[in-house]
């Protein structure tokens, strides 16, 4: 089967957990003898599509034509009118037709699998629907629901923006009627999109969780080492931004009396604030943004990972990444995070991350608890997040849609 995956960024341009998930999906579909291609718009060329092959996946790197994704992400260079133009093109970019047409003719896909498609835009749904190709859409962000890519309360914003947001959502809902199968990595996202009337004509709606590539013997080895590791060390990995719950997390830790190292990995606007906190409290080690092999080393050194997001994470990949290395999780009660913790029994959920006193108590509880109990439960449940499980579920959807189209046409 020829499977064309759409995602705005692709390896080695990894912007977040979604790109890691798309890479795993593409490469493991290729291992199952599918012909797999990815179309992204992160080419550094200004004029043409770059075609490459990485780990048996064909990569078509487009430019986005009138939408330049690199300039869109460089907020320092964008004036007000440029930002407005970019937001319009993010959701509907007909100037990308020539690039989509090239990929369509060169690859001849049987299935289109959309992921994070800002800039590729909802125009792609029109384009491939007109070619009678089944479309799967995996929602990994809130791009369809808001130009800010977050869940917004329509009653807490001004009247003008409220009108714009209503129009934006109406347009998205109309375009998603062209999708044949809608999946989400968490029940939270699946229910949110369906309850708000997105993908109203999809034949299939299903939660298919994100996955990790792991060896169960390696996990057991990590757990054995960690069960004998005292004192227990803590870590955080992710963006250093307010919505990730950085401020209550650090304040809560600094209020504890536990004698432990707290590794903080990542970068963002609050980096300088973290550095100031580290100067006041020598238990905090701010490591900045790390390479994959460096972050892996911190996972191996740590015992507890804190995932304190204030916003509704569509999934929370760092939770399963931590579980892979035998870490016990202290997570927020937002988005898809509590689903993973509950499924794996890999830690505890803080009911209110903004409550620094409660968060402090949760940190102290885990630090003074025998974590081997949580780790033993994780081993028995982590297969649910295996790449094999995810690939099997997507293959079932692809086959069902291809058979349905062959009957209709």
Write the layout of secondary structure elements.
Blueprint lengths: L1 E5 L10 H15 L3 E6 L9 E5 L2 E5 L7 H5 L6 H12 L5 H11 L3 E4 L8 H7 L5 E4 L20 H17 L5 E4 L2 H9 L8 E4 L8 H12 L6 E4 L8 H9 L7 E4 L5 H10 L3 E5 L3 H10 L2 E4 L9 H8 L3 E5 L4 H8 L2 E4 L5 H12 L4 H10 L5 H22 L1
Parallel strand pairs: 1-2, 1-5, 2-4, 5-6, 6-7, 7-8, 9-10, 9-12, 10-11, 12-13, 13-14
Antiparallel strand pairs: 3-4
Helix pairs in contact: 1-16, 8-15, 9-14
Descriptive notes:
By secondary structure, this protein is of the alpha/beta class. 43% of the residues lie in helices and 15% in strands. It contains 16 helices and 14 strands. It has an eight-stranded mixed β-sheet, sandwiched between helices. Strands 11-10-9-12-13-14 form a six-stranded parallel β-sheet, sandwiched between helices. Strand 12, helix 12 and strand 13 form a beta-alpha-beta unit. Helix 8 packs antiparallel against helix 15. The model has no long low-confidence stretch (mean pLDDT 93).
Helix/strand structural class: alpha/beta
Strand coverage percent: 15-25%
Compute the number of strand runs.
Answer: 14
- The portion of residues assigned to helices is 40-55%
Number of helices: 16
SSE order in H/E notation? Answer: EHEEEHHHEHEHEHEHEHEHEHEHEHEHHH
Note the gap between the termini: 18 Å
Which stretches are poorly predicted, pLDDT < 50 over at least 5 residues?
A: none
Query: What characteristic shape results from the CA principal axes?
Result: globular
Radius of gyration: 22 Å
Mean pLDDT: 93
Major beta sheet summary? 8 strands, mixed
Strand order in the sheet with the most strands: 3-4-2-1-5-6-7-8
């Amino acid at each position: 089967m020829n499977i064309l995956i759409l995602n705005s960024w692709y390896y080695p341009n990894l912007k977040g957990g979604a790109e890691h998930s798309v890479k795993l999906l593409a490469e493991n579909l290729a291992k199952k003898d599918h012909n797999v291609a990815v179309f992204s718009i992160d080419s550094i060329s200004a004029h043409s599509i770059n075609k490459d092959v990485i780990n048996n996946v064909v990569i078509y790197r487009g430019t986005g034509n009138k939408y330049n994704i690199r300039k869109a992400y460089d907020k320092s260079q964008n004036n007000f009118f440029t930002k407005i133009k970019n937001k319009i093109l993010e959701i509907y970019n007909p100037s990308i037709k020539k690039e989509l047409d090239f990929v369509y003719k060169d690859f001849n896909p049987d299935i289109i699998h959309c992921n994070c498609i800002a800039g590729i835009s909802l125009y792609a749904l029109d384009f491939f629907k007109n070619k009678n190709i089944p479309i799967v859409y995996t929602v990994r962000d809130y791009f369809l629901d808001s130009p800010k890519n977050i869940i917004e309360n329509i009653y807490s914003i001004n009247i003008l923006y409220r009108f714009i947001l209503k129009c934006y959502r109406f347009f998205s809902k109309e375009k998603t009627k062209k999708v044949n199968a809608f999946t989400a990595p968490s029940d939270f996202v699946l229910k949110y999109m369906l309850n708000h009337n997105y993908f109203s004509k999809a034949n299939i709606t299903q939660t298919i969780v994100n996955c990790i590539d792991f060896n169960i013997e390696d996990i057991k080895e990590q757990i054995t080492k960690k069960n004998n590791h005292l004192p227990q060390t803590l870590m955080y990995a992710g963006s250093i931004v307010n919505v990730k719950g950085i401020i209550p997390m650090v304040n809560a830790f600094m209020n504890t009396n536990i004698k432990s190292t707290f590794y903080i990995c990542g970068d963002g606007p609050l980096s300088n604030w973290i550095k100031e906190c580290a100067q006041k409290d020598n238990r905090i080690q701010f490591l900045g943004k790390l390479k994959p092999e460096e972050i892996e080393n911190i996972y191996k050194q740590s015992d507890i990972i804190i995932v304190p997001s204030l916003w509704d994470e569509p999934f929370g990949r760092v939770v399963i990444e931590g579980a892979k290395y035998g870490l016990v999780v202290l997570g927020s009660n937002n988005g898809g995070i509590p689903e993973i913790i509950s499924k794996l029994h890999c830690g505890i959920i803080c009911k209110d991350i903004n409550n620094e006193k409660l968060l402090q108590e949760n940190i102290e509880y885990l630090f003074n608890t025998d974590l081997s109990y949580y780790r033993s439960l994780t081993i028995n449940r982590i297969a649910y997040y295996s790449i094999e499980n995810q690939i099997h579920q997507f293959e079932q959807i692809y086959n069902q849609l291809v058979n349905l189209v062959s009957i209709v046409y």
